[in-house]
Amino acid sequence: MNISLRLSKIVDIIAECDTLADIGCDHGYVGISALKKGKACRVTAADVAKGPLAAARKNSIEEGVSDRIDFVLSDGFKDIPDDERLECAVIAGMGGLLMKRILSEGSLERFKSLKQLILSPQSDLDDVRKYLVEELGMNIVREYVIKDEGKYYFIFDVAADDRKDESYSEAEYVYGKHIADESVETYREFLGHRKKILTDALSAVSGEESERKRQRSTELKKELALLEEAFR
């Protein structure tokens, strides 16, 4: 079974655990790989749609691990039984606002054994970081940055059982904090890529007289200032 560089990295980050929850499991690649690599003893694969669960079940049979995966039709954590002893949960491949909703509605306090969350939002990363830090009080231990098929992805390794007060600057909410040493080069490349996009966008609206264009120019200059802070 071939999986993407992004999903492979997510599996690598999983700390060895008894039970892993793969939330929004899609084809089940993360859970199946975690079992085959000895990262988890059992997996709870959850998805809001029947189609992906059926595909995940089929893949688990083909890979010989179906006896160690429970498939649950669930919107996030909602229909996962309270007595499930989850130690790690992975949420990836969806927008940040949806991920934030899943976390806010998940009643995570039900899972006293939960130690690790691995999150890879596709958008609105600042909202996810802020929710984790300010609302859930969780510690983002490390952020990994990878480039897979020309696109940059961030993966958050979150200590779900480590609640502490930590301050973030606006730039850190937008561009991250605690970047893993192995990801620094890719992170700098991402910042350079993002700087070019913002600079080009700013050039396109420079000299425009409309209120909308002036507002956009102000927004772009602010984000460029935050990016320069991240570079430092």
Structure overview:
The protein is elongated. With 232 residues, the protein is of the alpha/beta class. β1 (17-23), α2 and β2 (40-47) form a beta-alpha-beta unit. Helices cover 43% and strands 25% of the residues. The protein has a seven-stranded mixed beta sheet, with helices on both faces. It has eight helices and seven strands; from the N terminus they run αβαβαββαβαββααα.
Per the principal axes of the C-alpha atoms, what is the gross shape? elongated
Provide the succession of SSEs: HEHEHEEHEHEEHHH
Total beta strands: 7
- Put simply, the count of helices is 8
Radius of gyration: 19 Å
What's the main sheet like? Answer: 7 strands, mixed
> Residue-averaged pLDDT, rounded?
94
Describe the structure concisely.
The protein has helices spanning 5-13, 29-36, 50-62, 96-105, 125-135, 170-175, 184-205, 211-231; strands at 17-23, 40-47, 69-73, 88-94, 116-121, 138-148, 151-163. It has 232 residues and is of the alpha/beta class.
